[in-house]
Design brief:
Length: 290
């Protein structure tokens, strides 16, 4: 580090278990940049000050995480298309006018799916969940050009809200909401083709690893490929059930990787080579164990 070292970092509350510093500093090393990436625990009362302070100190960019992804918007000078559609910002880049907000969760999931050979284009897609993670996942499913989308959420109204928000951006895509696996199965059986799925609830996350949001075996028999947004444990019960029924299943670590990679690309105006993917995943796994 020297007088020219550029500063980047994460703000959220809490940030104690984040793997972003390990990932971003490895990317900085691989690309030989004079930069460093830190993590700051910022509470909501201090959010505006943090953005102003970042600009005053010429901090080049931030990742933004829970609970600030929506609240940060009023303090930004501009917002990209994906962030506007999702109503959620996870990346800030410093410009002469202030910080511009981006969302890289949605492209991150799309890139992870591409890497694993999963495509939603022209396919039937089922989304489990209607929270923050599901919001990015629905954006990715719709942006990829799915044919028909089914949202399953315990609280049906939240699924309806999500559907309503996206309908205006993707008016041609059929979307339905249900609140149980059994209801989902009866709709899914209308199609002759199998479904691709994204599991975007927190059910099954460590330490509650013996749980899955959908329990019906009939559901898993209708799944072709699936992504669970959870990455701890590495193989969730949802993934095990999908595989046991003959489908392919992937965890959420690559989504997390590629959202970070996309942020890095935005800040440093370069394209990260896919040849680093496995190496970067290992760095993230190492950081998770600490
Ligand atoms: P995140 O940002 O991780 O998506 P969130 O916004 O709190 O977190 O959303 C959590 C998601 O997990 C929601 O879809 C939630 O369902 P509800 O909208 O009905 O609350 C789902 N979820 C959490 N615990 C659940 C449980 N025990 N059974 C079923 N769904 C659950």
């Amino acid at each position: 580090m020297d007088v020219n070292t550029k500063l980047y970092g994460l703000m959220g509350h809490p940030v104690g278990h984040s793997v972003s510093p390990a990932l971003q500093n490895e990317l900085i090393r691989l690309y030989g940049l004079n930069a460093v990436y830190l993590a700051w625990d910022v509470e909501t009362v201090g959010l505006e000050e943090a953005v102003k302070g970042g600009r005053a100190l010429s901090i080049g960019g931030f990742n933004v995480t829970v609970p600030h992804k929506k609240n940060i918007m009023p303090y930004l000078t501009d917002i990209d298309d994906a962030a506007r559609k999702l109503g959620s910002v996870n990346t800030l880049k410093l410009t002469a006018e202030g910080y511009v907000g981006y969302n890289t969760d949605m492209p991150g999931l799309m890139r992870a799916c591409g890497y694993d050979g999963i495509s939603f284009k022209g396919r039937n897609a089922v989304l489990i969940g209607a929270g923050g993670a599901a919001n990015a996942a629905l954006g990715a499913i719709l942006e990829s050009g799915a044919k028909r989308v089914l949202i399953i959420n315990r609280t049906r109204e939240r699924a309806e809200e999500l559907k309503k928000r996206f309908e205006t951006f993707y008016p041609g895509i059929r979307m339905e909401c249900v609140s149980s696996g059994a209801e989902a199965v009866s709709l899914m059986r209308e199609e002759t083709e199998k479904w691709n799925a994204v599991q975007a609830t927190s059910v099954g996350m460590f330490p509650d690893t013996e749980a899955a949001a959908v329990t019906e075996d009939a559901f898993y028999e209708l799944i072709d490929s699936a992504v669970d947004i959870i990455y701890n444990p590495e193989k969730t019960l949802f993934m095990k059930k999908t595989e046991a029924a003959g489908g392919k299943a992937y965890n959420g670590l690559k989504m997390l990787l590629f959202q970070g990679v996309r942020s890095f690309e935005i800040w440093h105006e370069l394209k990260v080579d896919d040849k680093y993917t496995e190496q970067l995943l290992d760095i993230m796994k190492g950081a998770m164990k600490k």
